[in-house]
Amino acid sequence: MRILLVNITAATGEVFDRVLHECFKKVCRDSTELTIRSISPGVPRLTDLAYAYSRLLNSREFCESVIQAQQEGFDAVITTCSADAGVREARELVDIPVIAPGETGIHYASLLGRTFGVVTMEDQGVIEVWKDVVFNSGLQSKAIGNPVRAVALSSYDAATKGVADTSIIVHAVEEKAKELVNDGAEVIVVGCSLFAAICTANGLVKLEGDVPIVDVMTVSFKMAELMVDLKNSLGLPAVSRAGRYQRVRDKHIQRIREHFGLGK
Predict the structure, then answer these.
(1) Strands 33-43 and 211-215: what pairing?
(2) Does position 53 have pLDDT exceeding 80, yes or no?
C-alpha cells in the first residue's frame, strides 16, 4: 500500500518530516509506504494558513497533487492541513481515499468519549476555521462550550523555538489540554499537524485519568490504511457519490483544467 502525504507549506522542515515518519511507523504496517511531498507553490509560512485566501490558493495546488497521486498509483492521499482545506474539492476528482485530518480526528475523538475539545495554533483565523471543521462535521453536540482553544505560544515561536526544542510545544499543548478537561472535555484533539505529530513522537497521548489526546495526523495515517483495506477487500467506495461528492467525469476534469491553464 502506498500513501501520499501532501504537505501544504512550501517545504517540509527536517523536524516535521522526522516526527511524521515516526508517527507513521508507530501505527501502520511495515508493508505500507509513506511518501511526503510539498506542494509548489505552497504557503511560505505556517501562519499564512490563518487566511482564507492562502487556503484557497493551496486548495488548488492540493487538488493537482491528488490527481497526480492517483495517476501514479498511490492508494490514498492525506493533507497536512488539519483544517482540511481542499479535501472536499479533491474528493470529486479521484476514486482513492482523500483523508481530512481535522474531520478524521474529531470523528475518532467522538468514539472515545462523550465530549471533546480542540487545541490549536494561536492565530484567530486558524481558530475560526477549526470551528468550521467542528460544525461541518456535525459534531457540535459533542463539543464542549468554546471548544477550540489556542496554546499560549505564538505561531512564530512555535515554528522557531518550538521546532528547535519540541518540549516547548508539548508543554503548551498539555497545559491547554488540561484547561479543556477542566471545562468538561473527555477527549482532546490536537488540531495542528505540527503540534499533533510532535506530541505523539514525544509520548503525549493521554492526560492523567486516561484522557485521550488525539493526534489528527497519526489517526489519519491509520484511517487511510483502513479505508484502502476496506476498499480492496469489500469493494467499499472511498466516498459516497450520491450527494456532496459527485464524481466529475475525467473528460470534464481535463477540460476544466485546460481552461484554467493547468494541463494539456
Answers:
(1) unpaired
(2) yes
